[in-house]
Design brief:
single chain; alpha+beta; Nuclear Transport Factor 2, Chain: A; six-stranded mixed beta sheet
């Protein structure tokens, strides 16, 4: 598999794992990296997993009932490092909330390649548009 396809698959795996409610696996994506979002910078698998478990509402089916759609992926590869930018749109449907867009924004990522493949070094998530996230995220106290 070429580097561009492997990196795109890594980017898309984040969305699939969040939507599946597999926060342990999402955390593992950052075992050697940092995730920065509205709550600040988190380093390592345990910190990212804990943040997701504390903030994301999970329903009876074990998922947050979301679909993260990642588009406009632009990748740059230079040897064993890479960077990317992408847009994301988050859709959600739950009882009492018909299918709708609840957030949209952009990712800025950095990656490194090791003997085992590409890994996130850094993901910066910036939310540009916010809808009704009351069924997706717990209120910050």
């Amino acid at each position: 598999m070429d580097d561009y396809r492997a990196l795109a698959n890594l980017i898309f795996s984040y969305a699939a794992l969040v939507d599946a409610g597999d926060f342990t696996a999402v955390g593992e994506l950052f075992s050697s990296g940092e995730f920065t979002g509205s709550g600040g910078a988190l380093r390592g698998a345990a910190a990212v997993e804990r943040m997701l478990r504390e903030t994301v509402i999970v329903y009876d089916d074990g998922t947050p009932r979301t679909k993260h759609v990642t588009t406009n992926v632009a990748l740059e590869v230079t040897g064993s490092t890479a960077s990317s930018s992408a847009y994301f749109t988050v859709l959600q449907a739950v009882p009492g909330l018909p299918l709708q867009t609840i957030a949209a924004g952009r990712y800025t990522d950095r990656f490194t390649r090791s003997d085992t493949g590409w890994r996130f070094t850094e993901r910066r998530a910036a939310v540009d548009l916010v809808g009704d996230i009351s069924h997706h995220l717990r209120p910050i106290l």
